[in-house]
Fold each of these.
Amino acid sequence: MDTIAIVDDDLISVDTIQALLKNDRYSFLRAYNGKDAQNLLNIAGNQVKSIILDWMMPKMDGIDLLRWIKAQPHLKNIPVVMLTANDTMEHIREGIEAGAYYYLTKPIQGAILQSIVKSAIRDFNLKISLLKKIKEGENVFRLLKDGEFYFKTISEGKGLAINLANTSGIPEAGIGLNELFVNAVEHGNLGITYDEKTLLVNNNIWENEVSRLQALPENRHKSVKVCFHTEPDSITITIEDQGKGFNFDKYLRLDEKRVFDTHGRGIITAVHYLSRLTYTPPGNKITIEFNPNNMYSLEQENPHPDFVDQVPSL
């Protein structure tokens, strides 16, 4: 059973949130101000899969608590859903910069709350599962100097991400690679648009639609090409799908509009875990370069997201 921490100074609001989520079989931890939440998370943070956090609270407000959470190595990867009655762009931007990838505005709508929390926990569980498989896996790929790989399905891409992550010696690299591989299949080869995925995720039919599209004659033989090359102090990975490309620039950072969506954080996640990403227009090819001795780790501070480049059109 997944555990959610609810942090809000309004007892009625806490009760309401818990009641709206009770049918999804969660367990709950509760705190009524930021200071109490700090104590709670220090004791039981390893049990928590998501935090629902009110912005305005006594003793320590939500934004300060969020910054504290993101500075703690054992808590920083827990997805935080910010609750706010103020949905101005300036307000939301402050939350994004502090690390909030999920937003809900008051008054709370039950269906949206359920969908956002489910998405946040799904993303968190996927990351933890990937890390576990990478850390438990064999490291034979560390012997690889050059390689060319082709995969067709999201499942195959996940397996490749796990193996390639072992080359860096930093398991978290696999999270970023997996996100890019998923994008290459769903948005690249299958042509699922952002708006279409929103509907599919909200209706819980995304996986079924991906399987249906991959079985179509026009998609059956499409693959994603991955090239891998190592030097003594660097690793280069190139990912190329068979799609038409996309406007990648708008997805390199989380904007104020998409924080209310249940998806759309894949490239942001990749930027978070990988050192340098370079998209080549029209957007169906991306190159990742990193030094395996200087990679992001869960024990380090978050890297700054400005290490993202764009190759000029030729």
Amino acid sequence: MPSSPTIRRNCSQLRVHKPLNIREMILLAASQLAEAGCESARVDAEILLMHVWQTSRTDLIIRAMDEVPEDIQQAFQMLIKRRERREPVAYIIGEKEFWSRPFMVSPDVLIPRPETEHLIEMVLEQFPDRNGSYQFCDIGTGSGCIAITLACEFPQAHIIATDISEGALAIARSNAESLNVSDRITFRHGDMLQPLKESDGPFDAIISNPPYVAKHEMDDLAAELDFEPRGALTDEANGLQFIEIILNEGVKRVKPEGLIMVETGPCGLPETPAQLTMKKEIIDLAGHLRGGIYQAG
């Protein structure tokens, strides 16, 4: 005998409110995120569930058929809704890994990216003595990921890190304290190299991931970047203005034969100033230009 409309409606309601297991919860959330245009929908769903439930990916796999508690389901769905609006996962959970270390992030700072790890690789390559008492400078430190990573990798080094944003510096200071290197990093508030004192340096190297997205490129960026500080992304011009400032002003701040290392993107690199020599272009595994290493003298 055919079911009545009332019975069909009740069955549907039961299906909606049926407790979901971990596997079902992740699949459902991943489907929602994929429909919203999130490229790594399954991974995003897993990360958000791990965050809400304070568990590991291994546990999610082992316990795939376990039911998810209702309070966890509700909290998880709230985060999924935020991600559906294309808010970056790092801002939702308040953390991003860089060089295998956790960094606190907020909308005050650019989210650390794997591309920036090329700069760390280059510093390690150019300064092979990990116990050297180097003087480094990080211009536009943001979350502090470059300065703090260098302090961790070079336990005798001292780093001065600048940023125009007080909010960013607050995040960077917190990260330095969390990773136990705050005693070897001096944070300065101001634009580019302006907050450096006359007594600072000379530096063995100045390192920077400056805003290098050209203004005309901004409209073509992923929706997630709308949540990130615009001033940390673009110079509102051709993408080269801040790089040029770092090169032209930085050469006065490094030791003889000292280095300046900058990250870049599609805008490329500016003409090399007369006081500097292009020592090496930074090329990623895909063959794309990711930055340059310049030497004074």
Amino acid sequence: MSAMLDFLKYHGLGNDFILIDRLDARDAPPAWRVLAPAWCDRRTGIGADGVLVLDADAEVDARLSIYNSDGSDGGMCGNGIRCVARHLFERRQRRAGTLRIRTGRGVVTVEPRTEGGRFTSATVDMGEPILDADRIPVLADRAAMGGHETPWDGLLRVPLPREIADAWKGWSGGGDDAGDHGAGLEPVIRCVSMGNPHAVLFCARPELVPLESAGPMLETHALFPARTNVHFVRIESANSATMRTWERGAGSTLACGTGACAVLVAAAIEGKLQRNATIRVPGGELQVRWEQRPGHVVMAGPATEVYRGSIAIA
């Protein structure tokens, strides 16, 4: 007879997760990387963008491991962190203020927000953005984006690889000849890490981007040795933007918290956005700000518990 494992289903603006609470566990963990793809399958499993595993850690409220729906390491996940915060607040009664959660990037602090004692949202200190090519990682340097003729503003920009630009000609519609056709894509990738790599591309009409084909082409390109999340972004005003996302290891998702932070950083450096903005995703809105000191990015948004259940471990 197969062993049964309890789980909870959460989502942050439609970015959904299977949460496994092992804070009291004494047994050896199963092979999460093997289980995640089967569990996340939306036809034959529970269905999710990823799996969140909580383990005990004497120095913090919980240690979080993140697995994408393909079983790969998620590294960091802004929407997932908010789901964990809601779980700790409601199911584990951690209500003494700031939560501290250890992730692959380090310890992240989270402030649950409440109304009438009930959880409504969470504000997450996502830390400083990473702009160094080796740490993102991306196989490019300043020479790849024009050398040293222009003042260095800290943002790594890489021209869209020729083979991708050629493949995307049918819909990209970049430049002055975009007219009423195509997405109006700028053929430049802005590279940022928030504990996981992000490729930010600005365009006039992200709704016209064929994510299912364009996303994986850039996600798996040789420029990104650890693969990358891919975002197509329209600037709406000085304090708002709309984005669509292809997530590394998960595919098209309704929201990406770390991606929203990366978009704000790239756009703020270029003067496209202020340092405090609303980032709209298909699942809703995230509030993101990039503090002058100490340079941390702070993200706020909701998290929702959907249901609880049990699943067999073969």
